[in-house]
Amino acid sequence: MASRLQIEGDDSVLLRVTHSNLKNFAADVRFSLQMSVEAVKDKLWKKCGTSVNSMRLELYDDCKNKLCDLSDDSRPLGFYSPLDGFRIHVVDLDPSSVTSGGWLEDTSLVEKYTISEEDYNKRSGTFRKFKENLASQNPSAFRNKISDDYMEDLCANIKVGDRCEVEPGEKRGVVKYVGRAEALGPGFWIGVQLDEPLGKHDGMVKGTRYFQCPPLCGAMVRPDKIKVGDYPERDPFEEDEI
After folding, report:
1. What is the pLDDT at residue 1?
2. Cellular component GO terms, alphabetically (predicted)?
3. Which letter does DSSP use for residue 36 in this model?
4. Pairing of strands 185-194, 87-92
């Protein structure tokens, strides 16, 4: 009877979503209780890469006890009586899935194109050749004009642990580093752990570790590129809400 009342109302539930193959994947997602289990799977497929036909959903309570499998794709989510704080665990049943093997999260497993310094120097039309040509024409333009204290004043109200928004793109995250980063250039830099994998590294830049974060969630930006304040983590499923 309780499930029937949930389905008939315009209710929703906030659930934690985890994935069997993605150790770093976890998100708090709000679902409509009127959504079918198949619709829930379709929504998750667009975010985690596991196809609907290869997905099994398990429901856990807030004490980590497994309650049931969401086994009937035609039933509304509310039939299983999930509550706020419960967890849906996505089990990928496809051994050849794009999520298997860890490569979707571990960029070290992805083969990268490399070229030797000797071969690069032989190429024409490269950025290095362009810079060398400009420097030969106007040497003064390439002298270091940025002081070691560049933008230090903008760091006065920025501290590690602050929530922030990074431009361009209004990417949100948390401040993980404030200080100089010689590998990037003179002056002050802000290290940010982005909420989504929209960065370029895991906190290590050009061989120097400035902070620790998941792969592709790290960004180093100038202080004028971020705003600190009340910037809560966005719901990654909000744009697909049914």
Report:
1. 31
2. cytosol; microtubule plus-end; nucleus
3. B
4. unpaired
Half-sphere exposure of 147 (CA within 13 A, CB side): 5
Task: Give the separation between CA 217 and CA 152, rounded to whole angstroms.
Answer: 24
224 SS3 class: helix
- Rounded-to-integer distance, Cα 151 and Cα 98, Å: 43
Query: What is the residue whose two structure tokens read 């999930």?
Result: 82
The values of phi and psi at residue 104, to 5°, are: -65, -25
Helices (H), strands (E): how many in the chain?
Answer: 4, 12
Residue 198 exposed, middle or buried by CB count within 10 Å (0-12, 13-18, 19+) = middle
Cα atoms in the 13 Å half-sphere on the side-chain side of 187:
19
Q: In 3-state terms, the chain is what percent helix, strand and coil (to 5)?
A: 25, 30, 45
Hey, is 238 helix, strand or coil?
Answer: helix
Cβ distance 209 to 147 under 8 Å? no
Instruction: Looking at 55-104, list the stretches that DSSP marks H as alpha helix, in order from N- to C-terminal side.
Output: none
Cβ contacts of residue 122 below 8 Å, gap of 6+? none
**92-142, pLDDT tens digit by residue?**
887 766 555 554 555 555 556 677 777 877 888 888 777 777 767 766 655
What structural domains and CATH numbers belong to the chain?
2-98 (3.10.20.90), 152-228 (2.30.30.190)
* CB atoms closer than 10 angstroms to residue 4: 11
Compute the CA torsion angle 111, 116, 120, 122 (nearest 10 deg): -140
Please state whether the predicted TM-score (pTM) of the whole model is above 0.70: no
